[in-house]
Specification:
Helices cover about 40% and strands about 15% of the residues. By secondary structure, it is an alpha+beta fold. It folds into 2 domains: about 10-100, 2-Layer Sandwich (Phosphorylase Kinase, domain 1); about 115-315, Aminoglycoside phosphotransferase (APH), C-terminal lobe (Aminoglycoside 3'-phosphotransferase, Chain: A, domain 2, Alpha-Beta Complex), CATH 3.90.1200.10.
Length: about 325
């Protein structure tokens, strides 16, 4: 989450007049994250999140994301619900941007997940994948191999400003991933961006899964690889095998992982690390002037990538 587009009180009040949600009591921007503008709104009736879609969001794809959130919530996943206006419409226009009012979920995100929280995540991820099997819409993952190649091309001339030799490392790794990327693994609807700041906890219990705007149809085990990258390294970027063990074990307990998925896991983890290295690199090199957002260091994911490159057997993730 972040704030790129400012919304004044008159614009907000005119927007809320279309809803049966009461009058605004407080309204403040949320600085976390990098993709969209988000505000925490409290009204005389309840609390909500107001999202204005920026940057990579394709307006034509927004109904997919909102429908996915409704589907998951209806199937027992604690996803926020898009709020429909008095005419039954969820997707709106605000300050010249596509926008949506979304229900507020209680709980807090964690900066440094515990082993028990990783176990809860594994179970929730598996249940979300099972719930997604009955979601009839599909969307290609535009941040898979083709997307990585596009981002690499856009950042190639300046990548070495961030770290000497980075452009060459990216080129070599994408070539390797392209040649060896897994095919034919179980696929379905995935979150594709399930970082700790997109999961809300009360204690060790998950009370919310948010930010589905990279949701897509792809290999289920790729989602698990994203979570290993995001949840199983400490603040110094050292791998935490006990965290990964609990994450994978609990995922497997709720949705058994096939032998082929286990075999592919090191390569999928490399791909997930490359995805976040490249998107962070692009944002690092192309900051948005005036935005209330702090770009994240792409080199964090170069360190993860180099770790995954050394893994020869998926068992090394869970020993």
């Amino acid at each position: 989450m972040a704030v790129y587009t400012k919304v004044d009180d008159q614009t907000l009040n005119a927007f809320l007049a279309n809803y049966d949600v009461g009058e605004a009591v407080s309204f403040k921007g949320i600085a976390e994250g990098v993709e969209n503008s988000n505000y925490l709104l409290e009204t005389t009736k309840s609390r909500y999140i107001l999202t204005l879609y920026e940057k990579r969001a394709n307006p034509e794809e927004l109904p997919y994301f909102l429908n996915l959130m409704e589907h998951l919530e209806a199937n027992g996943i604690p996803s926020p619900l898009p709020i429909r206006d008095k005419t039954g419409k969820a997707l709106q226009k605000l300050a010249g941007k596509p926008a949506c009012l979304i229900s507020f979920l209680s709980g807090v995100s964690v900066d440094y997940p515990t082993e028990m929280q990783c176990a809860a995540l594994g179970a929730m991820l598996a249940e979300m994948h099972k719930a997604g099997q009955s979601f009839t819409e599909s969307r290609a993952n535009d941040l898979s191999l083709d997307g990585w190649k596009s981002l690499a091309k856009k950042t190639q001339n300046r990548a070495d400003e961030v770290a000497p030799g980075l452009a060459s490392e990216i080129t070599q790794e994408i070539a390797s991933l392209s040649e060896n990327w897994p095919q034919g693994l179980p696929s379905g609807t995935i979150h594709a961006d399930l970082f700790p700041d997109n999961v809300l906890f009360t204690g060790n219990s998950i009370t919310g899964v948010i930010d589905f705007y990279f949701g897509c149809t792809d290999m289920l085990a790729y989602d698990l690889a994203v979570c290993i990258n995001a949840w199983c390294f400490d603040q110094d970027h050292n791998f935490m095998p006990a965290h990964a063990k609990r994450l994978v074990e609990m995922y497997d307990a709720h949705r058994p992982i096939s032998a082929a998925e286990i075999t592919a896991l090191p390569l999928l983890c490399r791909g997930a690390a490359m995805r976040f290295l490249l998107t962070r690199l692009y944002d690092w090199l192309n900051p948005v002037e005036g935005a209330v957002v702090t770009p994240k260091n792409p080199l964090d994911y170069l360190k993860r990538l180099k770790f995954h490159q050394q893994i020869k057997d998926a068992a090394q993730y869970v020993v």
